[in-house]
Amino acid sequence: MVVLGAGFGGLELTARLSAELGHSVGITLIDKSDSFVFGFSKLDVMFGKKQPDAVRNFYRDIRKTGVRFRCETIVSIDPVERRTVTDQGTYEADVLVVALGADYADYDLAATPGLQEVGHEFYSVEGAERVRNVIPSFEAGHAVVGVAGAPFKCPPAPSEAAILLDEYLTQRDRRSAVDISVVIPFGVPVPPSPATSEALLATFAERGIRFLANRRVAALDPSTGAVVLDDGSELPCDLFLGIPVHRVPAVVEASGLAVDGWVPVDPTNLTTRFRNVYSIGDVTSVGTPKAGVFAEGAGRVVAENLIASLAAGEPAAPYDGRGSCYIEFGHELVGRVDVDFLTGPSATGIFAEPSEELAAEKEAFGATRTERWFGV
Length: 376
Known about the structure:
The chain has two domains: 2-103 and 247-320, FAD/NAD(P)-binding domain; 106-246, FAD/NAD(P)-binding domain, CATH 3.50.50.60. A hairpin with a 4-residue loop joins β15 (227-229) and β16. It is an alpha/beta fold. The chain is built from ten helices and 21 strands. The strands form six sheets. It has a five-stranded parallel beta sheet, covered by helices on one side. The protein has a five-stranded parallel beta sheet with strand order 10-17-11-12-13. A three-stranded antiparallel beta sheet has the order 6-7-8.
């Protein structure tokens, strides 16, 4: 078996298969990065709460029976033959799982004119590090946290970034000299959960954060720094923290797996239209948000189905599109939204109020997965 991508989905899948079939199945896990970072840790890096090296979990530390990790760049994928070519070799698979996530590399930054010149993305570790070095010198002016396109990873993240920026500036007696705006292409911050959205909007109002709904950042003016929205209006801006346009990785697009931008799958079991080829997580159009917890759930379903097929057992329960997302509200308080995207007629979300207990739960969430995925 070959698994392409070592994010939430790929790691959950390989860990479960190793636990059940490690002595009888060979699993090759391939990723171009040498380490895994939880998405929420990038905010910790960005605001100086943690050092970059402290949030990295190195793949070389994986201790899972039957699993070998290869840090290689994927050059091509042939879903018909289940053949993957990397910069270091060729891999043939009986079962191929594509879990390469959504991409927002340099060419996607270029999709928003001016972003590379006068803005900062914070969705990569490198981007969060750059912001970490910029905000200490930001003392006055207009700050804009803005989304350049949908869909995008972790929908609550723009709201979290604005709240944590408010906290950062307040702690340094600079907040009164700064205006903060959030630009999101939704009507509310978290559409499936009215209660979550109400809590975030109340926090924005309390802290003087401006919320611009149903708008998208189209460009930044390199000469003035102004943010140009998709309706042609402009916002003055001295510090832009952006979520770039997301797209399927180019190697996946070239493979023929993608249709209309993303990989279509059977939402019950994550199979693609190619025999013995599965796809999980952000790279798909399965109908859930692009967030790690949903990729984890998809990886679990694929693993359980593969285990059942090898043991001639009953198929796993259908993928339910359920997951919980933690949301930073500042002051060491964390909320949680429990969402269900696939089991009912429409998506629903239940909100748990911010608390120190949920902050501890969030820490435990990361620790348990590190232990399960890496065996450490």
